[in-house]
Amino acid sequence: DIVMTQSALSLPVTPGEPATISCRSSQSLLHSNGNHYLDWYLQKPGQSPQVLMYLGSNRASGVPDRFSGNGSGTDFTLRISRVEAEDVGVYYCLQSLESPNTFGQGTRLEIK
Amino acid sequence: QVQLVESGGGAVQPGRSLRLSCTASGFSFSTHAIHWVRQAPGKGLEWVAVVWFDGNNKFYAESVKGRFTVSRDNSANTAYLQMNSLRAEDTAVYYCARGPNPWSNYYGMDIWGLGTTVTVS
Prior knowledge:
The complex is a heterodimer. Chain A is mainly β. Chain A has strands at residues 4-5, 10-13, 19-25, 38-43, 50-54, 58-59, 67-72, 75-80, 89-95, 102-103, 107-111. Helix content of chain A is 0%, strand content 46%. Chain A is globular and about 40 Å long. The N and C termini of chain A lie far apart (36 Å). By secondary structure, chain B is mainly β. The chains are: A mainly beta, B mainly beta.
C-alpha cells in the first residue's frame, strides 16, 4: 500500500499570514496519463470532509483562490496565501492512484 | 439537491453484523463510484472501500478485507457497506463519498454525506 506522510500534525498560523502543508507519498503518484493522483481535503470542526484540490493542483468548485496546490512525484504541498479564520480544521492529503486509497494522518491548522 | 445520506449505524456487540446504506439524490448515481471512509473517535480519516459505478469492481482496505463487503443497487440509488465480524476498532463515523465518473474528468471525492456512527462494544 502507498503510505502518505504529512510532516506536521499541527500548524499554528496568524491570520493574514501564509501557510504551507506538506505531504509525501511512499511512491510516485504520477499516472501514465500525466496526472498526479493526489487530492487535498479539509475537515472543518464538526463537519464532513470536503475536497479542496484534486490531481495535485486543481481547485475544487467553490474553493477560494488563496488555496493552491503543487508538487510532483512523491512530494506535494498545499499553500494558503493568506490564512483566514474560516480555514481552521484538519487538512488531509489522499492518494487515489491505486487501491487501497490512503490518507495522510492530517495536519491541524490553528489560528494563533 | 446533490447529496448523499448515510443510514444504518448504531451500537452492536463485537462479532455481530451491521449494514450501512448510502442513498444518493440529485445526480446520476449509476455513473459514479462510491467510496466509504471512516473516522474513529478523535482520529484521522481512513479509507475503507470503493465500489465502481457498475458494481463490478470493489476494493478494500486491508483492515476490513474479508469482513466488509461493498455493493450497490443503481435502481435504488443506494450503495451498501455490509460489515461482519465487527470489532471494537471498527467504532467510527462512516462516511460515503462520491467518486469519479469514468466518462468525465476526475474531481476527487466531491460529495460527502454527513456520516453515520457505528459503535462496537
